[in-house]
Amino acid sequence: MHKQFFVSRDIIQNHNMSKSSDINFKVQLDENQVPEKIDWTASDAGEESSCKAMLVSLWDEKENNTLRIDLWTKEMTVDDMKKFFHQSIMTMADTFERATNETEMAKEMKEFGTDFAEKMGLVGHVK
User: Fold this and answer.
1) Which DSSP letter does residue 42 get?
2) What is the phi-psi region of residue 98: left when phi exceeds 0, alpha when psi lies from -120 to 50, beta otherwise?
3) Domain boundaries, the chain
């Protein structure tokens, strides 16, 4: 069974010109609805790629909350999941700082990410 998720984003370029880009996810499920394979394409990239996990967050302005799509395949190992979450925490801190200019809070988020890596045994494996 295949499920497809489509995400579109508008990219503002120079003044009033905009560009549209499509990001598509195709998820192959087993008989128990567990993801076996996740493929994705982006119209900007021009080629299909696969991944073992994805975390997508969408802000619902009308409901004033976050909608999420969190998926991982059977082949995603626990060690890879720990690395994936560590890297997600660190990049969320970067994004938060760029979006809000809240440097101190971003620093605290990164400190949490570093603590997470240490507690998960990722020290020495962290990139």
Assistant:
1) E
2) alpha
3) 1-73, 77-127
Q: CB under 8 Å to 82, separation ≥6 — which residues?
A: 120, 121, 122
Confidence of residue 47 (pLDDT cuts 50, 70, 90): confident
For residue 11, how far is the Cα from the chain centroid? 18
Secondary structure (3-state) at 37: strand
- pTM, full prediction: 0.80
Cα–Cα dist 47/101, whole Å: 34
Backbone angles phi, psi at 74, to 5 degrees: -60, -30
The residue whose two tokens read 């984003």 is: 9
